[in-house]
Design goal:
The chain has one helix at 77-87, and strands at residues 8-10, 13-14, 20-24, 38-43, 52-58, 63-70, 94-98, 106-120, 123-133, 138-140, 143-148, 156-162, 173-178, 190-194, 200-204, 212-216, 221-224, 246-254, 256-263, 266-267. The chain has 270 residues and is mainly beta. Strand 16 (212-216) and strand 17 (221-224) form a beta hairpin.
């Protein structure tokens, strides 16, 4: 992908604060690798002309060489140290946004690696580095879908459009609030079925009234507002909810009053 001389925001700090701009090193005329390719996992067997296909792996992670230079005449030694402290040596992925019209809805989760200093004579003008992302994709803005129920939903159908450009499944975060009534814990149940994912169902039973459950379906973490460990409340076979690309028809049932889906769509950047 290519961008030239743009302001940017890294770790919630705008580049104007340090009088720096960013440009990609692959913006010259010619070809450059496309993003989000796959590695094909196969096995060849003796006397079989076609190998077995086990699947594919999204690879490699997105890497973009960049230059980050000052808009002033030079960077002093003190300013250079402050910029390096801001940009390099981070301990976790940070959010990078390029302030460019066609990129306003995208961001990268990344490290800035392999920094080198750009000098003209003895003057420090900036740095070269590599944006190393957490995946083969950039990310779109988080999408949240909220539903409130006056009566307990029974096979209530929801239609969600999954805009992710990752051909694999998208695993959202699902939050639901349980009703405050119920004579017995087994009365308080919840199930969700994706008709477009071969009727795959995620279901819970033996929950508590007024409980709020947050299910991170990507990391397979279930969090209860009461602090209970709720993996044991999942109905066997244990399956975490996921979305297919495109349209998803979803059936919801249970003693719930509210339901929320949160996703962050993967985006191809060229």
């Amino acid at each position: 992908m290519a961008f030239w001389g743009r302001n940017f925001i890294f770790d919630d700090i705008p580049s104007e604060e340090y009088s720096m701009i960013i440009s990609s090193d692959d913006g010259e005329e010619g070809s450059s690798p496309a993003t989000s390719g796959v590695e094909i996992i196969t096995e060849e067997i003796f006397r079989r002309t076609r190998p077995y296909l086990y699947g594919v792996k999204q690879t490699p992670v997105l890497e973009i060489p960049v230059k980050i230079i000052t808009t002033e005449y030079e960077l002093t030694q003190e300013d250079s140290s402050l910029v390096q402290q801001w940009l390099f040596g981070q301990q976790n992925y940070k959010v990078l946004r390029i302030i460019q019209e066609d990129m306003e809805d995208y961001y990268f989760k990344c490290f800035l690696t392999e920094p080198t200093i750009i000098r003209v004579g003895n003057i420090i003008r900036g740095f070269t580095a590599t944006i190393k992302c957490d995946s083969p994709f950039a990310w779109g803005n988080t999408e949240t879908y909220n539903y409130v129920f006056d009566a307990f939903p029974q096979n209530y159908q929801i239609t969600l459009l999954n805009n992710s450009q990752d051909r694999f499944y998208t695993f959202p975060t699902v939050i639901f609030t349980l009703d405050g009534a119920g004579d017995h814990p087994s009365d308080v149940v919840f199930s969700i079925t994706n008709l477009d994912d071969n009727n795959r169902t995620m279901a819970f039973t033996n929950l508590s009234t007024d409980e709020v459950l947050t299910i991170n379906c990507d990391l397979e973490i279930v969090t209860s507002s009461y602090g209970f460990k709720r993996i044991s409340s999942m109905v066997s076979p244990i399956r975490f909810f996921r979305l297919v690309n495109g349209v998803n028809r979803i059936l919801v049932s249970g003693r719930i009053t509210a339901l929320t889906f949160t996703t962050t769509p993967a985006k191809r950047i060229t």
